[in-house]
Amino acid sequence: MLSERSLPVFPSLIFRAHSGLQPSKDYDETQQPVRRHPGTDCSTQDHEEPGSSRNRKYLRAKMKGRWQEDAYFLEKHFPTDKHSKAAANTLMNTHYNKKTKRWKRIPEAAATGTDIIGSTHTLLNTILSKSNIPSSQRGFLQPDAGTMKVSRGPLLPPSLLLCGAGKAIISNPHDKPISEYYSGIVPIQVMLESEYKPSSRHLSVAHANEIFQAQDNRRYIFSAIMTERYLRMFMVDPSGCVMAPPLDYHTRPLQFCSVIAGMATLDEVRAGFNTSISLDINMRPTIQLAITSGPDAGKQLSYWIKERLFKASRIIGRATTCWLVASMDNDPKLYVIKDAWMGFSQSQNEMEGSLISYATSKGVSRGLVRIQHQAIISIPGRSEDTVVKNRRIRPGVFTTEYSIVQDRIHTRIVMETCGKPIWHFSNRKELLVAFHDAVDAHRRLLQVAGVLHRDISMNNMLINIDPNAEEGDRGLLIDLDFAVRVEKQPLEPMHVGTARFMSYNVTQRRRKHSYLDDLESFYYVFCWLICGYNGPRDSRVKTPDALKALESKDGGESKLLHLQNPFDLPVQSWFGPSIHELAVQLHDFCQSRLEASGPCPDADRDYAEYLGHIKDTIVNLAPEEEANFGNEDTAKLAAIENLATEFFRKRKIGEMDIDMEEPERKRPVWSQVAGNIEPPRRSKRLSRAQVGTKRKRRK
Question: Where are the alpha helices (DSSP H) in 273-362?
Fold first, then answer.
């Protein structure tokens, strides 16, 4: 069985055990399992590269209206100073032709972009050397397309990648730059000027997303496209991408040297790193939090990062990241820290932590996460960390020239450990009780505290992993980033939420968002669970066409047709007739409220009917059926449940022993679940000579 020393990683252990990510016969500890996005057809390794028409179309849609051109971008972020001037003058004596006004070895006419990669690589590293930037901390490297790991592949790596090492680059365990995204600072794509198109800039966004995925402490990411004549600089952040005018680096060598040296600066804040997340003296990742309000204002808190629980797929948007952490103050509990970039209009209302604290003070004690601390991240040398300040936009200019830029503010909250995603249900009853308690939490949040959630999705519903959780706490409602107090809700309709689960009213912006829209979103979440999964942890290989239609471009019209007609979605047979009947009842409920205008005066009746259908289905689940719809490995499940009971008992009485003196070694999943389960045998690989000998023997 597991030792007490390994108990702090229990929430991730439960997550892995219920997700079904068990080792195969050729299991390798260093190999990451292929994770599937909930409710999608493909895994994280099924996406096409940005050069393909499919991904370009997706990026074009995501980046629409998010491009900004700043004529003074280079002067703002890469100003020339006496150090860059001295380095440029020294370099120009040996590497620059003053007569032709061109850098030597950069061909004026090249057949392909590959012809200028080598000379560009040498020139850029020479600039770093003349700028006294140590090669042990910064360097331009040429990534290997065959070995470079990507999160959303297949994706060709950039031609050159400025890599680094040091305290701020927490994902790089080495003491030197490595040609991987986890060590990357600035990706540079080299191509011919004749090959450059406006759509080529999407490559910069794609590579920036890869760096964001690989590193947990990036606030923004610089990116570049370089041809035989021009350098185009980009800055990708949660609000989009700002770009500089093309720089003719042959006729402006001083500015060019300032840009290259500025990319490789050792000032982590200037390079776009979040310095509140760094490595300690023992090379363990830590998070610092300065409390800015309340009785503990001014107090500095420190946490060790145990593991990353969630990471947004792209930097553009809220760029949410969640970690499982342990306090450095001998606190036996584990916590979850969530970083997110809130929209400017949202932050003017209330932060998520403030809304949860307000709801708790009003008496909503179940179905929500417990907030410990919250803060707005500040950058050393200036106040709040916002997009406008990072882009160095003056306040007067922001209201005119940059009025379409959505400003975002960097926030952080500390919560108690929650649970596992709702799509990791172990049996039908666990799914239904968690779904019921999440809907009930929505009811109490609205009727008791007057707060409307407005973003119901599969990612925002959890199953409580505490086996002793009481009714009302078995399912949790999280992520109140879009929540708002009803009395402060804007009067005009808004397109808020997750598109796949939005109600018909929200997609069409017919009327102000109401609780009926969220109940309809709950219904769509339920449909994705019972139609998109064959059973516990068994996601369908292909999403049913009927579900795809509900999230297409005309998803609003498809949802209208779906609600106006009888329920016809393909519910998987594993869920049984009771759950199929529940889906029909929820469909009819949404159908009858489809034309309701504004907040319904009889919310009590609506919630009672909605929750009543779920309760009746839970009662109708036959015990003998439930025994057949559990985990395949009952011995393993029993070991997990016993461990869960012991974990929460010790955490409650403060007997947990968290030993943070030595970083834990990663062990195979089979050794974490139960000690008496025999590890899988690894297949023996034969050399080429041995394979040839075997073939001869067969002949």
Answer: 344-349, 352-361
CA separation for the pair 13, 123 (Å, rounded): 48
Torsion of CA 38, 42, 47, 53, to 10 degrees: -110
The β-bridge relationship of strands 67-69 and 240-243 is parallel
* Residues 592, 605 contacting (CB under 8 angstroms): no
Provide Rg for the chain, Cα atoms.
27
Using CA atoms, how far apart are residues 127 and 552, in angstroms rounded to an integer? 49
**Do the beta carbons of residue 378 and residue 385 sit within 8 Å?**
yes
pLDDT for the residue numbered 226: 95
Question: Is residue 581 over pLDDT 60?
Answer: yes
Instruction: Retrieve residue 519's tokens.
Output: 């109940």
Q: Is 143 helix (H, G, I), strand (E, B) or coil?
A: coil
CB atoms within 10 A of CB 252: 15
pLDDT in tens, 195-214: 998 888 888 999 999 999 99
User: What residues does 322 pair with on adjacent strands?
Assistant: 310, 338
- Each residue's pLDDT tens digit, 676-685: 334 344 444 4
With b meaning 16 or more CB within 10 Å and e meaning fewer, what string describes 26-63?
ebeeeeeeeebebbbeeebeebbbbeeeebbeebeeeb
The DSSP bridge pattern shows strands 221-226 and 184-190 to be: parallel
State how far Cα 581 lies from the chain centre: 35
Q: 43 forms bridges with which residues in the sheet?
A: 36
Is the pLDDT score of 406 beyond 80?
A: no
Distance of CA 510 to the CA centre of its chain: 31
Whole-number Cα distances in Å, 622 to 433, 474, 501, 574, 634: 15, 20, 30, 14, 19
- pLDDT per residue as tens digits for the range 12-49: 322 322 332 222 333 232 333 333 333 333 333 333 34
Cα angle 172-174-176, degrees, rounded to a multiple of 5: 100
pLDDT in tens, 450-496: 999 999 999 899 999 888 888 888 999 998 888 888 887 775 677 77
- What does the block give as tokens for 274? 């979040």
CATH topology of domain 53-263: tt1808, chain A (3.90.1570)
| Per-residue pLDDT, 305 | 92
Angle at 18 between CA 14 and CA 24, to 5 degrees: 105
Count Cα atoms within 13 angstroms, Cβ side, for 580. Answer: 11
Q: To which residue do tokens 């060598």 refer? A: 253
Residues 6+ apart with CB under 8 A from 532: 38, 39, 539, 540, 543, 544, 547
What three-state secondary structure class fits 286?
strand
Q: Please tell me what DSSP assigns to residue 621.
A: S
Mean residue pLDDT of the chain comes to 78
CATH number, domain 276-417: 3.30.200.20
Half-sphere exposure of 655 (CA within 13 A, CB side): 7
Residues of the chain with CATH 3.90.1570: 53-263
